[in-house]
Specification:
Blueprint: H1 4-15, H2 17-47, H3 67-84, H4 89-113, H5 125-161, H6 166-200, H7 218-236, H8 243-262, H9 267-297
Helix pairs in contact: 1-2, 1-6, 2-3, 3-4, 3-6, 4-5, 4-8, 5-9, 6-7, 7-8, 8-9
């Protein structure tokens, strides 16, 4: 059992507003520096003849350099997901959807560097992939807007109709403990996957290290999130047995599982699973709100 004082100390150390602002500034600085380094390597290869990446097209097009700072921005988004976990389950789920959307956006920048402008657009694999990703990103952006709208309506009505009871405060404390525990897990998975990624690449084949990293880290991190979601669902039974809330929380777990499954596949199936995960969560929240409204009218 975590000592209450030590838990609060750790929580304030890693997940306070002040720390969040410091991490935000740090990540932005790192993102800018990484972008400039990647861009420099591209132009060194182009104009100086320095070509250690001959087997990779990741250093052929300046557009590909945008991929690198987006990777650091995604790290910050993962931190924000943990940061918002104790505050609201719907905000927490929204962050999951924002992360997968940013992963698609990051992939689009990589797609752009591989485009082949031709009349045979739909016969070229890279061009088709780009088309799928553009459409997916647009649809996801709209669905997240609708999800956020429904979430804000739910939170506004909840704040007007109920005060935070001792049971809810206790549930929030449990979520804060879980968020605090997630921080070292997040760091451990990051270091482990990065180390494994580097070690598995053959020294003579540097381009293998520069392969698509979409499935790295996020695959394992979302597996941890599924466990966290299930634990939150089980703990929530101590504080509520309302059917619509149980179904909502269970539906969000299914949505997270679909996101995790998307990392194991490529091509259009990847886009379909991502779309299905957000569409399912959106449908669950919409029905939950209708259900809650009917209960208030009774």
């Amino acid at each position: 059992m975590i000592n209450l004082l030590s838990y609060k100390t750790l929580y304030n150390f890693a997940l306070s507003e002040k720390v969040k602002l410091k991490i935000e500034k740090f990540i932005l600085v790192i993102a800018v520096i990484s972008f400039l380094i990647h861009l420099s390597l591209i132009y060194l290869k182009k104009y100086n003849g320095w070509n250690p990446f001959e087997d990779s097209n990741f250093f052929d097009n300046p557009i590909a350099a945008i991929y690198t700072p987006f990777s650091f921005i995604l790290i910050y988004e993962v931190y924000l997901l943990i940061f918002y976990l104790p505050r609201s389950i719907t905000t927490y789920i929204t962050k999951q959807y924002e992360i997968i959307t940013l992963i698609v956006i990051r992939r689009i920048f990589k797609d752009l560097s591989n485009l082949e402008l031709s009349s045979n657009w739909f016969d070229i694999k890279n061009d088709i992939t780009f088309t799928y990703d553009i459409i997916t990103a647009l649809i996801l952006f709209f669905m997240i807007y609708v999800f956020s709208y429904l979430r804000e309506r739910l939170e506004n009505k909840s704040s007007l109709n109920s005060m935070e009871s001792p049971q809810i405060m206790q549930f929030i404390r449990i979520k804060k403990i879980m968020a605090t525990l997630l921080i070292p897990i997040f760091i451990f998975i990051g270091l482990l996957t990065f180390g494994r990624w580097i070690m598995d690449a053959a020294p003579e084949n540097l381009s293998a290290v520069l392969k698509d990293v979409n499935s790295l880290f996020f695959d394992e991190f979302f597996a941890v999130l599924i466990i966290v979601d299930v634990l939150l669902l089980l703990v929530s039974f101590f504080y509520t047995d309302q059917f619509h809330k149980v179904i909502r929380n269970s539906g969000f777990i299914i949505s997270t599982i679909l996101i995790r499954m998307s990392f194991s596949v490529d091509g259009v199936l990847n886009n379909i699973l991502i779309f299905a995960s957000v569409a399912f969560g959106l449908g669950i929240l919409w029905i939950h709100n209708k259900f809650a409204k009917n209960l208030r009218l009774e």
